[in-house]
Every structure is written in structure tokens, then in C-alpha cells.
Amino acid sequence: MYDRIKGFRDFYPAEMGARREMFDVLEDTARRYGFREIGTPALERTQMYVDKSGEEIVEELYSFEDQGGRDVALTPELTPTVARMVVAKQQELAKPIKWFSTRPFWRYEEPQSGRKREFYQTNVDIFGSSEPEADAELLACAADALTGLGLTSEDFEFRVSHRDILGGLLEAFDANVDTEAAIRAVDKSEKVSDEEFYGLLTDAGLSYQQAEEFEALLDTPEDDLDDLVAFAGTDRVESAVENLSNVLAATADFGAREFCTLSLETARGLDYYTGTVFECFDSTGEVNRSVFGGGRYDDLIEGFGGQPTPAVGFAVGDATLTLLLQRAGVWPDEEVSTDYYVLQVGDTRDVAAEVTRDLRSRGFVVETDVSGRSFGAQLDYADSINAETVVIVGEQDLADGNVTVKDMESGDQTQVPVEAFPPEDVSRPTYEDFE
Most buried among 89, 106, 237, 321, using CB within 10 Å? Predict the structure, then answer.
């Protein structure tokens, strides 16, 4: 007997049906916004991740040398791959480039609630627009996907910030600050104590007093963002405040403003983020980690050898989104469903097969016996797959020119002329159409 590998999951049909419904909503929403689906490889060269994140990233990868002697890794995220793809055909692609995909990723890290070694993400990205409307459209797309899954503004919020506000404020202090380290500290601020947070900031170059002052600045309300401009006195902060305000204003027009909250403590730990960033959280706090996030990464395409290209995107992970949907009571029912079961009694395969083919041609989920089972066993199986309607094709019924249509919920049934089933003028024939 073989055990499942730690951090990997099996999905049986009932659970997979619920997951498919979740991904269908995410993907259909992206399509309505004009995002086009792409496919990407499971393997990339390990060096691509080393160049982006440093040698230490290798410890978090499923990396190995393939039979051709190449150092490769199972992809831990999509952003480097789509950056590579944009660079490869940058001159041919119409701007803005709007892509999405759903696929598995792999990271060698300790599994925990909401975090697995193999996980699935729906990624949505826009390349080629630096306008606030691009950021706002992504937030609106994410909000529409979540509300399409049954969530409301009582269930989730987008905490929105701007990396240049954080970086500009840090630069305004009279200190030699490692800005990237300080921003990573901000990203951890809600997960650590105040003392540990101040320790991370002082390690990054601020004094303890400056760390306290910086934390107070992070609590600035949206109506007082001009106070940050006055404090920093730099074009960088002024421009960032204006950009963030414009993004939030655009989300109002795009129907997503009610889901957005200013949160300068939101930083996103990855160094490639350059502008607006956001994270989705459970409004009740029961799911106590970020559900998903995204932001602007305007320098990444150029860093991969392409022409300067602004970019913004988000990625929804399956594990944390599932936790949120379950907490809110809107996780799809984990059960298989079947529209029709065509039950055979005696030597009736040819007629049963014809009925089965006709129903399937109309787009229904239809099963029939392939195991030579008895009447009772077939009826039990129909019940186990939640068949809504059973069509009984029996020798005696056929001798009278009929089939029997049975409603599985009520148990009621009636006979219908075989030539009249399924009828042409009824889109979804059930017992009620013939009673």
C-alpha cells in the first residue's frame, strides 16, 4: 500500500466537482473581462528563479538535473513564466496583453492550513498599461469572481496599499535604511509582536524612535494621505498618493470600491512589486491569513530582457479560497450529479443506447448500465449518482411501445411512448412533463 506524499492532495469526484465549480466561476469572470487563457509549462530552468530571487530560493523548489544535464525546477509561481512569454513575443502582442490561467504549482515548504506543497492558482495579469484603470479593473474582476461564488462585502475585503508610499516614507527618515528589508518587515507586521516588528525595522536601519514614528504613519486614514506628502516632501510620495487615490476612484466607477480598504500595512513581501499592491482577507478574521493578493510589477519584463512594460496582476490560490468559501457557507455541494440514468431490463441495449445518445446530444449528463447488473442494482446505482430521472427501457414496456420515466426524488413514474421520448419540443424532459 502506497501513502500519499506529504503536502500533496487527492480529490475524489464529489470534492472535485465543487472545486471545478469554483474554478469555472473564476475563469468565466476573467473571460468576461476580456482576459485570454494561456497554457504554461510545469518545468522551467532553475536559474530563472535564482536570477529573480537569489540562490536561497533553490531550497524552496522541487529542482533537479534532467537527463539532458539541465538544472530545472517545477514552477513555484507563474509571474516569471509569463514575463518570459511576453519578452519572447513582445513585438507581436497587441497591448494591453490580458492573460489568465489556472494550473498547479509546487513549493517545497512545510504544509499548513491554506498552504500545500502542490497547490492550484488562477492567475490574472495585464501587461502594457500603467493607467490606474488597469489596477482598478483587476480589483473589479477579483471582486466579481468572489461575489459570483456567493460571497458579499460582509465576507471579504481588499486591503490596498502602494509600495512607493512605503518606500518614499522610509527614504524621508534621516537614516541609512535598507528599504526592501523594511518593506518586508511591514509585510510581516500583523504576524509578529510590536517589539519584533520594531526589531526588524531597526535591523533595516531605522532607530527605535523612527520605527515608532513610521508605524504611526502607517495608520494615516485615507482622508489624510496628504499628510504623508507633507511629511516626506518628495515627488515620489506625492506621485504615489495621487496614483493610489486615482486607483481607488476608478474602483468606484468599476463597482469594486465597497470591497477596498486603505491599508498601508499591506506591503506584499516580494521585491518585484513596484506600485499598487493589495491582499484579500476574510472580513471576520476566521481565516487568519491572506486569501490571495496581487499588485503592480512594472520592472519585471525589462528585468527579463524585454522592453520596459508596465504590468499588474493577481493570483488566487485554491487552498485559502476554499477555506473562505467554507467559512462563509457558500462552498459548492460536494456531491456528484446526473441528469438521467437509462436503465436496461432484458435484451434492450439497442433502444437504451439510442435514448442515451439522444439525451447526451442535448448536453445532458447521462449514464446507462455497462456492468450487466440487475434491475435493483441499477436502480441503487442511479440513486448513488444522484440521478434526477431514470428512463426504464424494459422488454415488456417496449412490447407495448413504451418506456417508463421515473422521478427519483418522489419515486413517481409513468409510461411514455418510446417514439415520443425524448420529445423534440421539451428541452429537459422529466416525469412532470408526462404525468
Answer: 321
> Which contiguous run of DSSP H or E holds residue 125?
strand 118-127
Q: How confident is the model at residue 190 (pLDDT cuts 50, 70, 90)?
A: confident
| Residues 126-184 pLDDT 10s | 999 999 999 999 999 999 999 999 999 999 999 999 999 999 999 999 889 888 888 88
Please provide residue 397's backbone torsions phi and psi, each rounded to the nearest 5 degrees.
Answer: -60, -45
Distance in angstroms (rounded) separating the CA atoms of residues 138 and 178: 30
Which helix H or strand E contains 187, and what residues bound it?
helix 179-187
Q: How many CA atoms lie within 13 A of 276 on its CB side?
A: 31
Residue 135 CA to residue 142 CA, distance in Å, equals 11
Question: What pLDDT digit, counting tens, does each position of 220-270 carry?
Answer: 999 999 999 999 999 999 999 999 999 999 999 999 999 999 999 998 867
Q: What is the DSSP letter of 189?
A: G
CA 326 to each of CA 117, 209, 291, 419: distance values in angstroms, whole numbers, following the listed order: 21, 43, 13, 46
Nearest Cα residue to 236 out of 181, 179, 308: 179
Single pTM value for the model: 0.91
**Do the beta carbons of residue 176 and residue 202 sit within 8 Å?**
no
DSSP state, residue 117 = S
**Contact at 8 Å (CB) between 139 and 276?**
no
Distance between CA atoms of residues 259 and 244, nearest Å: 15
Say which residue the cell 470534492 belongs to: 15
Measured in degrees and rounded to the nearest 5, phi and psi for residue 342 equal -95, 110
How many CB atoms lie under 10 A from the CB of residue 413?
A: 17
- Convert 263-276 to b/e letters by CB count within 10 Å (16 or more is b): bbbbbbebbbbbbb
